[in-house]
Protein: Taurine ABC transporter ATP-binding protein
Amino acid sequence: MTTIFDKTNSKAKGIRIKNVSKIFFPENDEPVEALKPVNLDIHPGEFVAVIGPSGCGKSTLLNIVAGFEQATAGSVLVDGEKVNKPDIDRGMVFQQYALFPWLNVQENVEFGLKQLNVPVNERAEIVTSFLKLVGLQDFANARIDSLSGGMKQRVALARVFCTNPSIILMDEPFGALDALTRSMLQKELLSIWQEYEKTVMLITHSVQEALVLANRVVVITSRPGRVKLNIKVDLPYPRDPKSMAFRELESDILDQLTDEIAKSYGGQSQVLMAD
Ligand SMILES: Nc1ncnc2c1ncn2[C@@H]1O[C@H](COP(=O)(O)OP(=O)(O)OP(=O)(O)O)[C@@H](O)[C@H]1O
Structure:
């Protein structure tokens, strides 16, 4: 494609999460220990799905990797460099799209490219090609509030992908969508990841989604969250959720998750688990 896709930032980068813990200190409430020391290495080009009980600290961890939130202790390194603020090279996709309602589809997608000072002609070319990739080429001038949830999420994906970040961070990006749209967008995400070789960290509540998409699934304990299990997923793409190998893995992970969820509901969330 064009020059932005030739720059050095187009190569996938590794993420090292080193002893990251987080305690929130709300003004009028007790401190909340969200993360116990978390250690996790995500290799360049890997697609890692993070799953765990509600409230275990997944979004907190992702926000620390994004640079939106600071760790109480420990650090996050991207290709050896410490993260302490957001960077356009770590693109974030949220569940609730986070689009600018006063800009149309094209302007939303173009936003990051303007921030990167990409020349006008090049911007137009990149935006057109990514709108096409997510099937929105006929909606360039549409207002955001005229789009369905699935279309908004396509805009959000195009906006992040078109700046060619090395790392894509996703916080339940498909959680609010119907099953069909979700499955279509998962396929689009997979094909973009395979074509452009990004490093992806995806938060999800769905074991099936994790297994359809990821090379590795990381299970987080009940709060305070830390890594309970690292499961390599060696199944070939495209993955078939009905296959025996898929269903066995799904059932193993569900068992582990159910244990953690039971802990958070059974008042035993303080029970420590061996690493
Ligand atoms: N800004 C904050 N101030 C105080 N507590 C917070 C703050 N942000 C998160 N928490 C608390 O930290 C814990 C972890 O929250 P987090 O949103 O990271 O969990 P999660 O695993 O992403 O949850 P879910 O799956 O339900 O989205 C929760 O108990 C939450 O209430």
Remarks:
- Residues 24, 26, 32, 34, 52, 54-60, 223 surround adenosine-5'-triphosphate (CB under 6 Å).
- Confidence is low (pLDDT under 50) at residues 267-275.
